[in-house]
Amino acid sequence: CTILKKTEGKYFFSSPLSVISNCQFRSKTARLKTFTANQIDEVKDPSGLFYILPFQKGYLVNWDVQRKVWDHLFGKEMYKVDFADTDIIITEPYFNFSSIQESMNEILFEEYQFQAALRVNTGALSAHKYFQENPSELCCLVVDSGYSFTHIVPYCRGKKQKEGIVRINVGGKLLTNHLKEIISYRQLHVMDETHVINQVKEDVCYVSQNFYKDMETAQLKGEENSIMRDYVLPDFSTIKKGFCKPLEEMVLSGKYKTGEQILRLTNERFAIPEILLHPSDIGIQEMGIPESIVYSVQNLPEEMQPHFFKNIVLTGGNTLFSGYRDRVYSEVRSLTPTDYDVSVSMPENPVTYCWEGGKLMSENADFEHMVVTREDYEENGHSICEDKFDI
Q1: Between 354 and which of 97, 106, 122, 312 could a Cys-Cys bridge form, CB atoms 3.0 to 4.6 Å apart?
Q2: What is the mean pLDDT of residues 230-238?
Q3: Given a cut of 70, is residue 4 above it in pLDDT?
Q4: What stretches pass through the bilayer (predicted)?
């Protein structure tokens, strides 16, 4: 998440123009060429697409790739930035390593020479947005489920309660990789097709409201199996993007005469997102999201707990699975004392909710007191950032 703000108060981005991938790509059909961020749209054949990621397990470890993404974002190719006249809000993970923070400070202030910078957690921006929308509330519990991991973080009066922070090492990347393994074992070798299978996951997977009932339905034959779907894989020639066959066009024998390459999906549709709720299903010895929510709140003072249970906010890309909010609510409700109200909300756009919170924060009259200016950094070094940024 990156937000730029000009000194005069005008924003380069008044609303998110686009959400781009924070990585580089190489295609097997154009191995000598590297594509950066939204240049993936230029890849004619994304099959076998190789991802070069700056982040591993949520932490920034490949600065060369990250610089190239930022150069692409800040440079002439996208949004020409006048660094000396621009403030930046940039997010980082909870409990980030000090060595990564110091490198970030050096690049922002010494290499790009931004006028001012604010390093902040994504949850803090989401909480800021939530409190602006619900001014009568003092507490909220942000559940941020993204690419590498899921964080559950309680906020009270705008401050995170560190004793209640829970991290689950389950995110969208793990779900996509597990789906690749299942499809490769059952039907077709797709271990090199991360880009394609990630699209399959987003198009057909959903969170079940009754896992065992859906599992029974998925075992039925013929038209009684309402869960089964046929997914047409792209060939990047006549079919540029994969899609689900309409139910009325599905051939129960599984044999299509059109030459289309078909994936037949049944219990994979709901078993993959189920990992978010019960990671132990595939041998990951961690709590799922509902159990982690309850565990997080129970680590807080008892008099505060009711306020968090009734202000649970779901953000991040994994919230886009159909049925996600309802299932989280039902499981948290079953694990919570009956005398507590439980409310689980999901923003209209949970992917950009954090960005919207950052935009609101940058409009705050106190924003200039939150940031570290380049002059402050040049005078005090990393210590001024450690004092101001409560990461």
Answers
A1: 122
A2: 87
A3: no
A4: none
- Convert the pLDDT of each residue in 262-313 to its tens digit: 999 999 999 999 999 999 999 999 999 999 999 999 999 999 999 999 999 9
Tokens read off for 367:
């924003």
Does the reported pTM lie above 0.70? yes
Contacts of 214 (CB under 8 A, 6+ apart): 208, 227, 267, 270
Q: Tell me the chain's radius of gyration from C-alpha atoms.
A: 23
Query: Model confidence over 340-349: pLDDT tens digits?
Result: 999 999 999 9
Number of C-beta neighbours around residue 137 at 10 A: 13
Residue 88 is encoded by which pair of tokens?
């930046």
Nearest C-alpha neighbor of 178 from the set 264, 268, 312:
268
Q: Which residues of 232-268 are buried (b: 16+ CB within 10 A; e: fewer)?
A: bbbeeeeeeebebbeeeebeeeeeeeeeeebbebbbb
Residue 349 token pair? 């756009």
One-letter amino acid for residue 93 of the chain? P
Q: How far is CA 8 from CA 12, 85, 360, in A?
A: 11, 9, 16
Span of 37-41, 76-80, 162-166, 316-320 with lowest mean pLDDT? 76-80
Q: What is the DSSP string of 36-76?
A: EGGGGGG-S--TTPEEE-SEETTEE--HHHHHHHHHHHHST
Compute CA distances 81 → 84, 92, 112, 204, 209, whole Å.
9, 21, 10, 39, 47
**Residue for token digits 């930035």?**
81
CB 347 within 8 A of CB 353: yes
Please tell me the predicted confidence (pLDDT) of residue 77: 60
| pLDDT, average across residues 223-237 | 89
Catalogue all structural domains in the chain, each as residue range(s) with its CATH number.
Answer: 2-120+352-388 (3.30.420.40), 124-169+286-345 (3.30.420.40), 172-271 (3.90.640.10)
b/e burial code for range 309-346 (CB count within 10 A of at least 16 → b): bbbbbbbbbbbebeebbebbbebbbeebeeeeebebbb
